[in-house]
Amino acid sequence: MSTNSQTPDLMALLQGAGNDGTLSVATMQSLQVLDLNAQLQTGMGISAGDVNASEVLLYTILVDDSTSIDVVIDGVNNSDNVMLGHNELRGAILDSKQQ
Fold it and tell me: Which residues, other chains included, contact 68 with Cβ-Cβ below 8 Å and sequence gap of 6+?
């Protein structure tokens, strides 16, 4: 298999489009690829290879930030319920005997 030296670098092409305004700042930010492995390693404080376990639970949450969260039901807005639910789940995981 041969490599075509005339093939443009995709990141250079996208960067050029961002520089000349063809792509918005928000679009350019969304195209930035994060090194998730490095972020996980930083969060754990040790490398993944140094974890002394055969199973690991990765807990992630995506919170809905739409206007429906601000709806008030029985005097309580949904954001309070979302925070309560998140904190209950987090507490249950932290209080687990399997750590």
Answer: 78
